[in-house]
Amino acid sequence: MSITAIDAKTALILIDLQKGIVGSNTAHPVDAVLKHVRELADAFRRHQLPVVLVNVTGGAPGRVEQRASGERPADWAELVPELDAQLGDLRVTKQTWGVFASTGLADELRRLGVTQVVIGGISTSIGVESTARQAFEGGFNVTLAIDAMTDTKAEAHDNSIARIFPRLGETGRTREIVERLDARA
């Protein structure tokens, strides 16, 4: 499906683009993902729309069969410099897969009048998909920038894009999203 509209008050949410995650093995080249993410961030900033930079520093406390273990480097949760983080960007640190759980982000976006979110980041099937589900359930229009995301497993990435995302919102490429933003001006 292609993008039909970009709302007047749309926010960009970039998930887990931090040193400890970007350095993982991914299904798609991270350099290309970061290039697209940066194009989106630059366009949103140019149009004075909110940019939300999200990192993760822990996990939910429940029992799981598989959990990351070991000591993380001190800079593991630092956002990558390619994002060119700005003072006006919203920064959110999460402890769960999706950014809307227990962070207050939904209330902040509503306070700003945001009705739509564009989402990108790593990992497609975990942080991005969980955030998209929560945004959809919270009443936001959801757009997923499919070339501004990747996963550690190609089959997980492909499943999210082909089977899950069309049920949560609209999908499109960075170029299409930026063109829609620019056409509104």
UniProtKB/TrEMBL annotation:
Pfam families referenced in this protein's UniProt entry, alphabetically: Isochorismatase (PF00857)
GO MF assignments: hydrolase activity
Keywords: Hydrolase
Family annotation (CDD domains): cysteine_hydrolases (cd00431)
Domain called Isochorismatase-like: residue spans: 10-174
SUPFAM superfamilies: Isochorismatase-like hydrolases (SSF52499)
InterPro entries in the cross-refs: Isochorismatase-like_dom, Isochorismatase-like_hydrls, Isochorismatase-like_sf
Tagged with keyword Nucleotide-binding: no
Designated name of the protein: Nicotinamidase-related amidase
Organism: Dyella marensis
Lineage: Bacteria, Pseudomonadati, Pseudomonadota, Gammaproteobacteria, Lysobacterales
